[in-house]
Write a structure and sequence with these properties.
single chain, 133 residues, alpha+beta, TATA-Binding Protein, 6 strands, DUF1499, DUF1499 domain-containing protein
């Protein structure tokens, strides 16, 4: 019985380590947001009129969000992908924002699992609300 318990603990530790340490390939996650506003099981797509400096404003807001870093891109390139990790287990969510003239397109999605319980929607909608003058 003790052996099974230790095995389960070891598997749990290995899973958490993988979630936190698995590399994030920019070729897979730094992709142009497509489509119109919609909620997904594991994410969200938004397109809002922000004027030409929406990405600049969003970038400052995103970087002020705890556990959020840049995976790829820049304001100068016109597209940025962020990784935001959950506090306890470090699950990564990827958010790509692209400035398309006066429209800011945002695509947020989870990496692990099938459902995010609205976490990406809430974060993106909160960020977008803060970009409004």
């Amino acid at each position: 019985m003790k052996m099974v318990l230790w095995l389960l603990i070891a598997v749990g530790v290995a899973m958490v380590a993988y979630i936190r340490l698995a590399p994030s390939d920019p070729a897979r996650w730094h992709v142009v947001p497509q489509g119109a506003d919609r909620n997904l099981k594991g994410g969200v797509v938004r397109a809002v009129e922000t004027g030409p400096d929406g990405l600049t404003r969003l970038h400052s807001i995103a970087l002020a969000t705890p556990r959020t870093t840049v995976l790829a891109g820049s304001v100068e390139e016109g597209m940025i992908t962020y990784i935001t990790r959950t506090k306890v287990f470090g699950f990564p969510d990827y958010t790509t924002a692209q400035q398309d003239r006066d429209t800011l397109r945002v695509y947020a999605r989870l990496r692990f699992g099938r459902k995010d319980f609205g976490v990406n929607r809430d974060r993106v909608d909160g960020w977008l609300a803060l970009t409004q003058p």
